[in-house]
Write a structure and sequence with these properties.
The protein has 293 residues and is mostly beta strands. The chain has 2 domains: 112 residues, Jelly Rolls, CATH 2.60.120.380; 114 residues, Jelly Rolls, CATH 2.60.120. It has 2 helices and 20 strands. The chain is elongated and about 75 Å long. The termini are far apart.
Length: 293
């Protein structure tokens, strides 16, 4: 059946010249029509919406954008070499389809770094600035910000984004989440850090005694006392050997400096401190060590 059909088509096109030309022109037009219809239909079915590459944002710079329903936007940024970040978003104006000032509806803003959500908020014209809390990440991590207008109305939302990077003196260097990657600390300095994630993040520090003698470690929870936040500290004689002189102890917000017992160390001896298990995300703290009598 297939062979006969093929033979008939060949015989047909091998007929008289006039008949052949008429049929060839007709088929050419049909093919062109089919191609045009295919391209036209694909513009609606195969590629319903153009996908634009994400815009990369610099730190400590204010950006102005606008967004409409059905056209979500994505931005990226890189975490800094030092210090912490927070994402700030402000809706500056909203216009309806006639260009008049509009009120009521909100835009959705979500931000994350290395699969960790740091901001999820709805924000409108009268919301002021919405900001994430402060987070400390290892340098060079990619952050993502997604903005969308979720209400199906022909409004335009004008907004600002700023990724703030602050660099306190002697700030922790991520990743310091294990004893092997502990940050070195010395006497006569105050060190700052942030526990990013409740019950999961841990920051390690190591002190090497410059002289034989007694030392005390001091810890301070920098969160507001009204939050009721706390974290835990623990001392280690070695990377994997807990020291009972600094047991697993909570440091509460609003209590000022909490001090350890005296720790006797020989010159060159290393001592490890683990700070962990905060009640909430983004728990800021300070740590220092002093030589005492």
């Amino acid at each position: 059946m297939v062979a006969t059909e093929k033979f008939n088509r060949v015989s047909f096109w091998a007929g008289t010249g006039k008949r052949y030309c008429m049929k060839k022109g007709f088929v050419t037009k049909v093919k062109a029509l089919i191609l045009a219809l295919t391209i036209f239909s694909c513009s609606f079915v195969c590629n319903p919406k153009e996908v634009k590459a994400a815009t990369n944002l610099n730190l400590n710079q204010v950006y102005n954008f606008s967004v409409t329903y059905g056209s979500p936007q994505t931005f990226t940024f890189q975490t800094p070499a030092t210090g912490y970040i927070r994402v700030e978003v402000t809706v500056t104006d909203v216009k309806d389809g006639q260009g008049k000032t509009a009120y009521g509806n909100l835009i959705d803003c979500q931000a994350s770094v290395d699969n960790k959500s740091i901001l999820y908020t709805l924000i409108g014209r009268n919301s002021g600035t919405k900001a994430s809390t402060n987070y400390a990440f290892a340098p060079g991590k990619t952050g993502t910000i997604n903005v969308s207008a979720d209400v199906s109305v022909p409004w335009t939302y004008y907004y600002q984004i700023k990724i703030v990077n602050e660099t306190p003196e002697n700030f922790e260097a991520e990743d310091n989440n294990t004893a092997d990657t502990a940050n070195k600390i010395k006497t006569k300095k105050v060190y700052n850090g942030i526990l990013n994630e409740k019950n999961e993040d841990a920051d390690w520090y190591v002190f090497k005694a410059p002289k034989t003698g007694n030392y005390r470690f001091f810890f301070q929870n920098m969160d507001d006392a009204r939050t009721g936040d706390f974290f835990y500290v623990q001392g280690y004689k070695k990377k994997n050997k807990v020291d009972s002189r600094i047991p697993y102890t909570s440091v509460d917000a609003g209590k000022g400096w909490c001090k350890s017992k005296k720790i006797r160390l020989k010159k060159g001896k290393k001592y490890y401190i683990r700070i962990s298990d905060s009640l909430y995300d983004s728990n800021a703290y300070q740590i220092k060590v002093k030589k005492v009598k």
